[in-house]
Amino acid sequence: MSNMDYDYWNLNPLVLDKGEEVKQELLKYYELGYDEDNKTEETAYNEVKYILKDGCNLDELFDLINYEKLKAAVSLICTKYELDDSDFDIYVDGIDISVAYQHNQIT
């Protein structure tokens, strides 16, 4: 699902670009490729659509999109490397975004 952020959400890309940058760093760090990247986009898209039924403001939407994309990436990483997702910490607050594994920052 290429360009989900711009084609589907049609939102200001500043915050979403930062989330995409962090997701790409995470996927690269764990040597995940194009297919896994597409799976994270699809998973995040479906999760965000489901959550939006309850409504949220624009700032929450940006954070939600970025968080769901990173959560999907972590899920794939955990499956591939047999890791526990509770060892990952995902922090998303606007453009302040990070992912840590066992308290060691990755991105």
Describe the structure.
This protein has 107 residues and is of the alpha+beta class. It is built from four helices and three strands; from the N terminus they run ααααβββ. It has helices at residues 4-9, 13-29, 34-51, 58-81, and strands at residues 88-93, 96-101, 104-105. It has a three-stranded antiparallel beta sheet with strand order 1-2-3, with helices on one face. Strand 1 (88-93) and strand 2 form a beta hairpin. Helix 3 (34-51) packs across helix 4. The radius of gyration is 13 Å and the shape is globular.
A few lines on this structure:
With 107 residues, this protein is α+β, with helices and mostly antiparallel strands. The chain has four helices and three strands, in the order H-H-H-H-E-E-E. The chain has helices spanning 4-9, 13-29, 34-51, 58-81, and strands at residues 88-93, 96-101, 104-105.
